[in-house]
Design brief:
Elements: H1 17-20, H2 25-36, E1 44-47, H3 51-59, E2 66-70, H4 73-79, E3 85-89, E4 93-95, E5 100-102, H5 104-111, E6 115-121, E7 124-126, E8 129-132, H6 135-146, E9 148-154, E10 166-170, E11 176-179, H7 185-193, E12 199-200
Parallel strand pairs: 1-2, 1-6, 2-3, 6-9, 9-11, 11-12
Antiparallel strand pairs: 4-5, 7-8, 8-10
Helix pairs in contact: 2-3, 3-4, 5-6
Length: 203
């Protein structure tokens, strides 16, 4: 680009939640359906920030009774009046960009809680690692992972082959990885060589 430089989305910039929640709705619904297969009635489930996670939050109605622990504003809105759902809404500093709560209050609350499974999303996958551009968001996601018996990564296939400022986790740290379509051949080859299994959410 003449006269300047460009930064790919997912590298240092993440669009506002209100924009992301309107994108790729079919892919998000498929991933949410696949994630729902990992949830059973009576479980305690953690759901992080993110627009894909928000779709999963709404689908949890099918797994009641259920306890939901979340810092995701959209999930809080959709589950707070849901019969058969116990909602633990994590406080903290509200971010309009991510439509979630973050910071030391969020992290301290998570340190006192335990869940059967945590659903984590990431905007960038490079090699065998997940990344995020915001340090406060990374800390909240890691706190959820530390508080859960199992962890599932939800990631759009277009996010493979991208990087961001902060390392979130190794892909091997997740018990399941769900995406909406096959990653690029070079990315899939690297995953296969490392023995990292992914679930492709199909119709």
């Amino acid at each position: 680009v003449r006269g300047g430089a460009t930064i790919e989305a997912g590298t240092r910039f993440e669009s506002d939640f209100r924009i992301r929640e309107k994108q790729d709705s079919a892919a998000k619904s498929r991933m949410a359906k696949a994630a729902l297969a990992l949830v059973e009635p009576g479980m305690t489930v953690m759901i992080n920030d993110g627009s894909t996670a928000a779709v999963l939050g709404a689908a949890l109605e099918e797994r009641r009774p259920i306890t939901v622990i979340t810092n995701n504003g959209a999930v809080i809105d959709r589950t707070k009046g849901m019969p058969g759902a116990t909602l633990i809404a994590l406080g903290g500093v509200f971010s309009a960009k991510f439509n979630g709560f973050f910071g030391i209050v969020t992290e301290n609350a998570l340190a006192q809680l335990r869940a059967d499974i945590a659903f984590i999303s990431a905007p960038a996958i490079s090699g065998l690692h997940a990344f995020h551009m915001d340090d406060a968001v990374v800390r909240a996601k890691r706190a959820m992972m530390n508080a859960a018996e199992r962890c599932c990564l939800l990631v759009n296939h277009q996010r493979f082959g991208r990087s961001a400022l902060h390392l979130l986790a190794n892909l091997g740290d997740f018990d399941a990885i769900i995406t909406d379509a096959e990653p690029a051949p070079e990315d899939r080859t690297e995953l296969d060589r490392a023995g990292i299994k992914i679930t492709i959410a199909r119709d």
